Please model this.
Amino acid sequence: MNKSRIEAFSDGVFAIAITLLVLTIAQPAGYGNLGHELAKRWPSLAAFVVSFAIIGIMWLNHHSLFGHFQRIDRPLFYLNLLLLLTITFLPYPTGVLGEALHRRQGTQTAAVLYAVAMAVNAWAWSALWLYASHRRRLLAASFPEEERALATLMFTIGAVFYTLAIGVAFLNAYALLALQAALALYYALDPVGRRPRRGKRRGATPELPVTEAPKSPGDPAVTS
Amino acid sequence: MNKSRIEAFSDGVFAIAITLLVLTIAQPAGYGNLGHELAKRWPSLAAFVVSFAIIGIMWLNHHSLFGHFQRIDRPLFYLNLLLLLTITFLPYPTGVLGEALHRRQGTQTAAVLYAVAMAVNAWAWSALWLYASHRRRLLAASFPEEERALATLMFTIGAVFYTLAIGVAFLNAYALLALQAALALYYALDPVGRRPRRGKRRGATPELPVTEAPKSPGDPAVTS
Amino acid sequence: MNKSRIEAFSDGVFAIAITLLVLTIAQPAGYGNLGHELAKRWPSLAAFVVSFAIIGIMWLNHHSLFGHFQRIDRPLFYLNLLLLLTITFLPYPTGVLGEALHRRQGTQTAAVLYAVAMAVNAWAWSALWLYASHRRRLLAASFPEEERALATLMFTIGAVFYTLAIGVAFLNAYALLALQAALALYYALDPVGRRPRRGKRRGATPELPVTEAPKSPGDPAVTS
Amino acid sequence: MNKSRIEAFSDGVFAIAITLLVLTIAQPAGYGNLGHELAKRWPSLAAFVVSFAIIGIMWLNHHSLFGHFQRIDRPLFYLNLLLLLTITFLPYPTGVLGEALHRRQGTQTAAVLYAVAMAVNAWAWSALWLYASHRRRLLAASFPEEERALATLMFTIGAVFYTLAIGVAFLNAYALLALQAALALYYALDPVGRRPRRGKRRGATPELPVTEAPKSPGDPAVTS
Model:
């Protein structure tokens, strides 16, 4: 199996899913009082922005994660397909949540739908990692062993957090949206992607294709 | 004709078709009782998942199949275009089937439409293979001759099965959907893609770009 | 300007436009008599198939044409952007024509819209060619001089034919659709793409990346 | 971080956003008097063409700009993601503006929405440039120092102009659309992309991957 073509296919799916999100922003019902109509739809815009950030950050982490794989086998392809399924599905709950919030009807249900979709996504990430990292099945030699257990822990904690977020969805839809944004920002700091760099300092192969260029000392803190 | 650009174009079409499927999931008609509205639409979600799996698995098999081609000529390009036509069309019957099932109206017709679309797709696959493999027209030298007849048999059986599935569509729409999922899972085992590996053991060129990395003895059975 | 990235961007636009066409197929208005509803919409399916073939064949010719360019400059980029504009626009007249034909209302207007869109597309192709080939501005050295005038003639004739097709649209919408399909099939034979092969026999560089592999004597006639 | 994959991801988003624009062209409300219905929708077509030109020109400038970067770091990735957000959002104000203009309702609001979306886009461009160019953080060695201040000035002026355009939107929606088209044409002349060529004449590395092939003396003036 050709790793770079599977990455390119995944990249395509990410790029399309992130761009299709714009279709989920609720259209104005009338143009007579357009300013008011648009203003009422701000939750729809907020849901769009949160989902956009989620998919964009996931793309980067997908890119980092696959950089640690030496090869791809058929089960990993299907686990990746499952992950892509949860990502291409995201425009649906995004649209429903935005619509529910601006109609002020069904907000709890819509928030639970969104939270469940994100939890399934987190489980797919964990399954992908557990399969690939178990006994270093598909890991590149340059991925430091001491980071493996830590990454497993973090993927597991992530899955637990996203599952607990379903509870928040039952309480308040806006709180759920804010929590999802916060979780995305946490992943934007890329806890796993940073590991190998440390490993590199300890002598891993410098030609690993996806690691970042060495940072200059004056490099500012990572911000989103 | 540049094989890798035709593959890249096909990859793009697959990636877009698989992502557009989300637009076929029926939107709630109202938000007053959103939970009930969404629950009623589960067949729409089921049709989405089945079509997603079908396109994802087809992508992988397309990728494997083209790996066995040494070159691409103009007729093959048009046969591939025909195949892509049947794949980009899939969101239409998927949407119609999901909608028919949740309305409980026109389910038989919708199932037949879906089954016919998949049968035409299977015929396009067979035509592509028959054209490319006839007298080894476009096959790579590394593709073992003894696998050729077997692959032809399997593509033919596949086309027959998908044609017979139209009969199932007349009986029951849910049975058709389940059958399509089962057929997709069968293809997920990739009967053709596995052949060359055996050929390799007999000495085929190891630099064939799309064959899988050799599996370790402890590699688990292929699952989806 | 990086030629391969402009080609990749164009490929992406072609792949998306061809896949978006499925959204133009008219949805059934009701599911009570779904078979009848779908059958009434066959012109919508026919328009989809014709536009799909047109975009697919154009992709191949775009690919061949750019293979004859040595480099790309800024004016060519904008002419290519104009060409892409006419291609991404195609789903609109396709949807309108399919809808008009199945409603049996506004068919003449819809056919004229489709014909005009295709004529503008043909003019964009001609402008692209004339700019690139004038004094061999951007042509690769391997493109034989004697083919240049012929290609110019063919692009010009093409533009004239597509312009005359607007007249057919005024007469009958089905005739226009059939004519567009016939014109697409004519271009499927790729009059320009074939030239360089002859040139190659006369000693052009064999490593030109986009020319076809030499055909075997038993190669069947080009069919679509 | 792998620069070429981030470029490919961005290219994909640009290609999809530019192609999705066709979905913003308002569909005819009826087919009884289709010619009149379509003619009334010309502002929708005009908005489509302007947004198409904007995204196409931005793609080229994105391509040029990233050619001046030696590497990409995480903050730049997120600034680029912000830029892509403003680009994928563009179909929404495009559709609203086209619809408002043909309904002759809410045109001022729609024009302001469009102008604000473009202003945010211009700020995202400026932020990207300022971050990357500050103390030459990510700039390639071949980017001439004397051009850096000029480029910063031009990005700043651009952001100011796009912000002032919001004022025009309050006055007249058609004037805003014309102004946006004019600003796009100005950027089509690529003031930044041209710099390095001059730098090259002064001895920069010729293998810089994205610079244009040297122009022949007879090269016509840049036109769009």
